[in-house]
């Protein structure tokens, strides 16, 4: 019979129990320390040439560097609006032309245009902005099926991490406009709605362009979310739905005015 492993027979291998510990943001209760390797072993006994780059502690530095690069590249960006929508929209289609007009109108109203830098609606909005001689920005994302930044992006920043990129959209935009899209667009829309609903960002319009495309979702939100009490009826007012480019600009300008009013300075 195999000898029983007890603290006496295997003194060095026994996991050590520690009491509650607070390590920065992390709370450890009844923690077990099972790591019986030494720091030197972990440093010198590498498993492969790129092991270090894939361990979470090092990943944190890459995440950090992505924040630093993003903040650095975008810090001088003037007032801007982000435009989201399908990567699959084709040039010449109605949604493509709407996005192009929105890009142009935003520039004429004094805003830079930020998109995901990809094809479809993103390209169209960048194109409208660039054709109107405005500031056209693309925040690209590394994807398995890389499509690269579209040709109408004047300032492009590529990100590895979705969540870092999302921070940039929010930090450097005064409003979000969502054109018809798929999961990516819905993700961007619902994340921004959550941030406005929870008060993380204020006076931040979320505009859904294309009423017939969005009607079913709005109805579902009303019938299911409001009816079941998972959102309050007032939350519906966080979403603006329109088919008018002029209305888009009016909504954004009004929100800007209310910010300047709160600060008691006129809008520039
Ligand atoms: C699918 C194709 C290329 C994808 N390239 C993208 N580049 C940049 N940003 C993207 C890309 N795809 C999605 N996004 C982001 O999500 C939104 C669109 O996603 P949807 O699922 O198409 O609605 C968009 O706003 C971007 O921020 C080749 O066709």
TrEMBL record:
Compositional bias segments (type: Polar residues): 1-21
Protein name as catalogued: Cytokinin riboside 5'-monophosphate phosphoribohydrolase
Annotated keywords: Cytokinin biosynthesis, Hydrolase
One BP annotation, GO: cytokinin biosynthetic process
Annotated organism of origin: Hoyosella rhizosphaerae
Catalytic activity field: N(6)-(dimethylallyl)adenosine 5'-phosphate + H2O = N(6)-dimethylallyladenine + D-ribose 5-phosphate; 9-ribosyl-trans-zeatin 5'-phosphate + H2O = trans-zeatin + D-ribose 5-phosphate
GO cellular component, one term: cytosol
E.C. number: 3.2.2.n1
């Amino acid at each position: 019979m195999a000898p029983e492993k007890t603290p006496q027979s295997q003194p060095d291998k026994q996991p050590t129990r520690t009491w509650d510990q607070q390590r920065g943001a992390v709370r450890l209760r009844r923690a077990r320390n099972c790591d019986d390797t030494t720091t030197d072993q972990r440093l010198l006994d590498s498993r492969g040439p790129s092991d270090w780059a894939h361990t979470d502690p090092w990943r944190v530095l890459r995440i950090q560097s992505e924040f630093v690069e993003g903040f650095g590249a975008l810090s001088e960006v003037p007032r801007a609006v982000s435009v989201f929508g399908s990567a699959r929209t084709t040039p010449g289609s109605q949604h493509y032309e709407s996005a192009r007009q929105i890009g142009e109108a935003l520039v004429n109203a004094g805003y830079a245009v930020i998109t995901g830098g990809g094809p479809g609606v993103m390209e169209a909005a960048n194109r409208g902005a660039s054709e109107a001689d405005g500031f056209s920005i693309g925040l690209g994302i590394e994807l398995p099926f890389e499509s690269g930044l579209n040709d109408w992006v004047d300032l492009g920043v590529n990100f590895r991490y979705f969540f870092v990129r999302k921070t940039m959209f929010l930090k450097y935009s005064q409003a979000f406009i969502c054109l018809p899209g798929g999961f990516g667009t819905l993700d961007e829309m619902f994340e921004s709605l959550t941030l406005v609903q929870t008060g993380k960002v204020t006076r931040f319009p979320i505009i859904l362009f294309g009423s017939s495309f969005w009607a079913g979702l709005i109805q579902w939100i009303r019938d299911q979310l409001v009816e079941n009490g998972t959102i309050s009826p007032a939350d519906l007012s966080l979403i603006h739905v329109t088919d008018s480019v002029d209305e888009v600009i009016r909504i954004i300008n009004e929100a800007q005015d209310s910010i300047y009013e709160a600060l008691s300075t006129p809008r520039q």
